[in-house]
Specification:
- The chain has about 280 residues and is of the alpha/beta class.
- It contains 11 helices and 13 strands.
- The protein has a single domain (about 5-265), classed as Alpha-Beta Barrel (TIM Barrel), CATH 3.20.20.70.
- Strands 1-4-5-6-7-11-12-13 form an 8-stranded parallel beta barrel, surrounded by 7 helices.
- Helix 1 (about 35-45) runs parallel beside helix 3 and helix 9 (about 230-235) crosses helix 11 (about 255-265).
C-alpha cells in the first residue's frame, strides 16, 4: 500500500504593513494571524512533513503576482517538496516559481478561466508539477445535470467550484471538473470544501470520497481538520491520498510526528524520517 502524506499548509497574505504573514480563517473568512511563513516552513521541515503547500490567498483577487521573494526564502529553508499556488496565470508564472524553488504549482482561478493552461503546463513541465486546487461549496439549487452527493444527514447536494478565493461562484460541478482536469494532464487535486474549511469539525468526507472513487487522480483532502482522527477518517472513509491541515499545526496543537505516530498505530502507512 502506498504511504499517505501529511501536508501543512501556509495561507499567506500581506498584512497592513506590507509584511507577508500566515493566516487562518473559517470558510475563507475571519482571518487571524498564525505566524511567519519562513519560520513555520522551517518548523515543518524539521518535523518531517511529507510536503508543504504555500498559498498566496489574495494574489488572484488582488490581480497581482505571487510573492516570489517569499517563495525563494521558504524554499531555501525546506528540503521537502514545496507546492505553490495563488495568482498564477501563465506559463511564465510556472517557470518563475519553479526557478524560485517550487516543486509543484497549484492553480485554481486560472485553470477555470483557461483550461488549456493545464495541458500546456503539463506538456512543458510534466503532470507531476501541475496541481489543480478545487475550492468548492455545497449547493442545492440549479442541480439539473449535476453530480448529486448524499451527505451524512441524508440530504443531497451538488458541489460548485468557486474561484478568487471563494469570492466568485462558477456554476461548475466539482466532480465533472475533477475528471476534466485529469483529462487535461493535471497530476493531483487539492480539494477544499468551503463548508468545512476552518471549522475544525472534520473534512468533508462525502465530496472527498466521491472524488476519490470517481477519478483517477490523487486527492489531497483539505479543510476542517481539528484532530488526528479527522485525518484517519479522510484516509479510510474519504479514501484520500494525502491530508492537508493548517490550524492544528500552526497553533502547536499537534506536531507532524504526533499525527504520523498515531496514524501508524491505527494501520495507516506513513513515512517517518525517510522510512516506512
Amino acid at each position: 500500500m502506498l504511504t499517505k502524506r501529511i501536508i501543512p499548509c501556509l495561507d499567506v497574505r500581506f498584512d497592513d504593513r506590507g509584511k507577508a504573514v500566515v493566516v487562518k480563517g473559517i470558510e475563507f473568512e475571519q482571518l487571524r494571524y498564525a505566524g511567519d511563513p519562513v519560520e513555520l516552513a522551517k518548523r515543518y521541515n524539521e518535523q518531517s512533513a511529507d510536503e508543504l503547500v504555500f498559498l498566496d490567498i489574495t494574489a488572484s483577487h488582488e490581480g497581482r503576482e505571487t510573492m516570489i521573494h517569499i517563495v525563494e526564502e521558504t524554499s531555501d529553508e525546506v528540503f521537502i517538496p514545496l507546492s505553490v499556488g495563488g495568482g498564477i496565470k501563465s506559463l511564465d508564472d510556472f517557470k518563475n516559481l519553479l526557478r524560485a524553488g517550487a516543486d509543484k504549482i497549484g492553480i485554481n482561478t486560472a485553470a477555470v478561466k483557461d483550461p488549456k493552461l493545464i495541458r500546456k503546463a503539463a506538456n512543458i513541465f510534466g503532470s507531476q508539477c501541475v496541481v489543480i486546487s478545487i475550492d468548492c461549496r455545497q449547493n442545492t439549487k440549479d442541480s439539473d445535470g449535476k453530480n448529486i452527493v448524499e451527505l451524512k444527514d441524508g440530504s443531497k447536494v451538488w458541489y460548485e467550484v468557486v474561484i478568487y478565493g471563494g469570492r466568485k461562484s462558477t456554476g461548475i460541478d466539482a466532480i465533472w471538473w475533477a475528471n476534466e482536469v485529469y483529462s487535461l494532464g493535471a497530476g493531483e487535486i487539492l480539494l477544499t470544501s468551503m463548508n468545512a474549511d476552518g471549522t475544525k469539525e472534520g473534512y468533508d468526507i462525502p465530496i472527498t470520497r466521491t472524488l476519490s472513487e470517481n477519478t483517477n487522480i490523487p486527492i489531497i483532502a483539505s479543510g476542517g481538520a481539528g484532530n488526528i482522527d479527522h485525518m484517519y477518517e479522510a484516509f479510510t472513509e474519504g479514501k484520500a491520498d494525502a491530508c492537508l491541515a493548517a490550524s492544528i499545526f500552526h497553533y502547536s496543537e499537534y506536531t507532524i510526528d504526533d499525527v504520523k505516530n498515531h496514524l501508524i498505530k491505527k494501520g495507516i502507512p506513513m513515512r517517518v524520517s525517510g522510512k516506512l
